[in-house]
Amino acid sequence: MRDYYDILEVSPDAEPEVIDAAYRRLEHRYHPDAYTGADAAERMRELDEAYAVLGHPTKRALYDRIRYHATGEGRQPESEAPSPRLREQQPEHRKCTLGVNKTVDLALAVACALATTLIVLLVPSVEPARVGLGLVFVLFLPGYVLVAALYPRKDDLVERLALSLGLSIAVVPLIGLALNYSPWGIRLDPILAFLTLFIVLAASVAMYRRLTLPPSEAMAIPVDLLLPKLPRLRLADRLLGLVLVLALAGLGVGGYFLATSSAGSEEFTEFYVLGPGGKAEGYPRTVDVGQEFTLILGVVNHEGEAVSYRVQSTIAGRRAASLDSLQLANKEKWETPLTLTATQPGSNQKVEFVLYRGDDDVPYRTLHLWLDVGASPPQPSVTETPRGEGTAPPRSPTPELPPPSPAVESPPPSPQPPAPSNPPEAPVPSPTPSPATPPPSTYLVQPGDTLMGIAAVFGVQFTEIAAVNGISNPNLIYPGQMLVIPGTSP
């Protein structure tokens, strides 16, 4: 058996710090990436085996005792039998030291990701657990499995953990950016699904790469409860470890604050407009007069109580649509498609959406878009209202004159008795009945119509149309309104 002290090139009475430094120096020298000799793997195996014994105080004491009795060299043990304290520690240490496993950390990462997804989706009421697992899920696991996939060989564990935190902060926004341009968008379910998929795939690649390496080279987590003493760590390692601990503590405090301060958070209402595809893009830019266009209007209540809302929309200052009595509970979301119609041509027309809270007349939130409306001749239509029926379908805007009344023929003269001797009197002609007064026509207002324009088409005064229909303001007519045209017939 080769002497472990010779393998590490140290003396038998070397201090632990000297053994650590020698192992690191030889590890860099004989690493397969730097040493191209045929015995590179064998040398690394011997170094790992020697350091596993000499780097552990209890194992080194046992090795020194066996070496002294076998060769008579080295430090003489204090007694031939182990001390009672050593006998008590040896069985307990053997129970704690279960060896190393190449994939146990990766399996735990995948299990934690799956557990987080299930808790967030199935148990939404457990807020502290969601926040705690969510911080680990977002800020640590993606970077850790990515580092494991990129660097499957052994390295410094503290540096690996710090790099995992930094890579997670870089990877998660990139996944969110990709989702923003996907059909799923940045929502809770797609983020959970794709982050979990990323963790599982990266962990699978890391497992495969580790299993293809020799045991002495692959990264593995020793299942050993004995931790290295602080004096054996370099100053840089101590500082890096301290920064990592403080960062994790800060994340824990921040998560607890977020979980417990939701009741005291700022009260507000989300008010937004999306394009027809449900995203903040694809808004209509150009339409024609009378052409319909659709937007998606949304309101989310974060006021901490139930609130009643009202929404009004205008196009170039003209009222286009309104929604009244929108009652939303706290954290309730309302979203619906809204179809509008441009009624007047013009460029850069302001399409404005105003949100009112309760009965307040002061706008609570406002949104606006800019729209170019191309000119298009209006297509008015005249509709008839037969007796006893509803509104008839529209027809040509030019009213038709009533057909001429048929001539009324006088009945044939009946036979007259013999004329008396007196001269005959002239017969009195029967009166011709006058035609009945025709019923008035009705007109369905089309987008872009004005009361004066309609009056000009039918040859009447717009004041007569306003009086018959009870219109106080001639400018307040709207598409779809049925007007009665006096003095005309269908």
Descriptive account of the structure:
- With 490 residues, this protein is α+β, with helices and mostly antiparallel strands.
- 40% of the residues lie in helices and 18% in strands.
- The chain folds into 4 domains: 4-96, Orthogonal Bundle (Helix Hairpins); 104-260, no CATH class; 268-374, Immunoglobulins (Immunoglobulin-like); 437-490, Membrane-bound Lytic Murein Transglycosylase D, Chain A.
- A hairpin with a 7-residue loop joins β9 (346-357) and β10.
- The longest helix is centred in the middle third of the chain and has 26 residues, at 235-260.
- The termini are far apart.
- The model is unreliable at 84-100, 224-230, 380-415 and 432-436 (pLDDT under 50).
**Which geometry do the CA atoms define?**
rod-shaped
| Measured distance between first and last alpha carbons | 118 Å
Helical amount: 25-40%
Task: Report on the biggest sheet.
Answer: 5 strands, mixed
What structural class do helix, strand and pairing data support? alpha+beta
- Binned strand content: 15-25%
Mean pLDDT over the full residue set? 75
What's the total helix number? 13
Flag low-confidence runs: 84-100, 224-230, 380-415, 432-436
From the alpha carbons, calculate the radius of gyration and give it in angstroms: 45 Å
Side by side, the strands of the main sheet go 4-10-9-6-7
Number of domains: 4
The helix/strand order is: HHHHHEHHHHHEHEEEEEEEEEEHHE
Total count of strands? 13
